[in-house]
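Reminder: ligand-aware prediction takes two inputs, not one.
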Amino acid sequence: MSLAAAMTDTLAVRVARRWPEAQGIEAFELVHIEGAALPAFSAGAHVDVHLPGAMVRPYSICSAPHERWRYLICVLREPASRGGSSALHDAVAEGDVLRIGRPRNLFALAPGARHHLLLAGGIGITPILCMAQQLVQAGGSFALHYAVQQRDRAALLGLLAGPGLAERSQVYCSAGDAPSRMDIGALLAQAEPGTHVYACGPARLVQAVQSAAAGQGWAPERVHVELFAAPQGVRADGDAAFELVLARSGRVVDVPAGCSATEALAAAGVAVPTSCGQGVCGTCLMGVFSGVPDHRDMYLSAEERERNDQFLPCCSRALTERLVVDW
Ligand code: FES
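Here is what comes back for the chain with FE2/S2 (inorganic) cluster:
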């Protein structure tokens, strides 16, 4: 897909309102520029927001899926921002028109679950709140647990206090006069059979949920997680040059050391859709026909890595001189 084609698959939206939602977090309410209904989505979906400087950043939609007149996103100003959150905080005003991709869902509710245990940390509340709202609408069974450091850093408390949500939600603040902590192990241990758990937030929360679930024998398909960033960024040690062979065209693209495969492909005029650029979202996933990837992502499971039949070119590299990919 060319860059031009990628841009035409976007939608123009207007920033109808923006407001400070919590300390360091701004809310942006996006509406169709002609007042039409926005494309449908399901809870857990995100939109890619196109920002000045050809930056594209994914943000979870936190408004309810039945509210087709708006997408609400909340953006935390990241101290280690690669520019996305600063651009939104500093340069986007009410009335501005932005281009966004169509909603995509890589963190959906499991349709067969009897109960949904929703765990959020910090800005990870955004898809989790959307899930809770969809479950309220659908009459689904759920409990929501939301951990923050301080109450003034907790976003979306107004929506969480709404009908059907308040009685099934619990907020924990680890600092303050009466500190409280989310006990992940206990929540998982008390879960009824048929429960699926969903976790979104900082890496330490997501990893704690994964390791508690594994320790308690939860089947991997009942554990759903979404990370917003790689815990330590993308590993860059041992970078070696390799060749990427595009099987569909036979083209060979050199990937030098210090340059990602997606950067090398872009320089060769091959645009691969990307979003997080850190191996956490799965947008750039590519099939691998031969060669051995050096997996550096947080997206693939251990079993998927072992199969070596797919890789994430935004961050992963090759352990062999060549990778032949399905592109
Ligand atoms: Fe997110 Fe590659 S762009 S995993």
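The two ends are 10 Å apart (CA to CA). The domain at 115-227 is CATH 3.40.50.80 (Rossmann fold). We will return to this case in the review session.
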